[in-house]
Amino acid sequence: MKFYYRGKLGRFWYDTKYWKISKGKLRYIGPIVDGKIVDKIPEGVTSCECMFLMNEQIKIGPEIPASVKSCVRMYALSSIEECPGIPEGVESCLDMFYGAVNLKKAPEIPSTAKNCEAMFYLSGIKNKPTIPSTVLNSQDIFYGVKCNA
Question: What is the DSSP letter of 18?
């Protein structure tokens, strides 16, 4: 069943078979096939906060819509291995890949990002992306990352 949401997460249609809004956050509850979600993140969503937090099934992250402004803890402590990229317009990547030990290649940080604190904290990345000069907070961004870059 499709519902229209209008509130602090943006304005968008979402399918209740795949998505649930709980405690002010949009969470994916649908099936994960071959490490991918079967639906896409609804266009119009402004926050992906905790969307796949502690998800042990997700391997390949979905495309993030251009409307998203916050990716706080989006894949924290999950089994994510591959992220398609972070679109320009995202302002906060706080703890985005915190503890994502299976992530091998870090996506580029968008120039619109302002807060990237602990973005790759204790993750498994093998490359260190350039931190744009527009980032105001990059404290502990690569803490515990073991790579040669």
Answer: T
Q: How far apart are the first and last CA of the chain?
A: 47
Q: What is the pTM of this model?
A: 0.94
Residue 48: closest CA among 132, 134, 78? 78
So what's the pLDDT on residue 2? Answer: 94
For the chain, give the number of residues: 149
Containing structural domain, residue 138? 1-149
Read off the pLDDT of each residue in 23-35 and give the average, rounded to a whole number: 95
DSSP string, 53-98: TT-SS--BPPPPPTT--B-TTTTTTS---B-----TT--B-TTTTT
Closest CA to 35 of 73, 72, 71, 84: 84
How many structural domains are present in the chain? 1
Predicted confidence at residue 147, as pLDDT, reads 74
Radius of gyration (Cα) for the chain, nearest Å?
15
pLDDT at site 148: 62
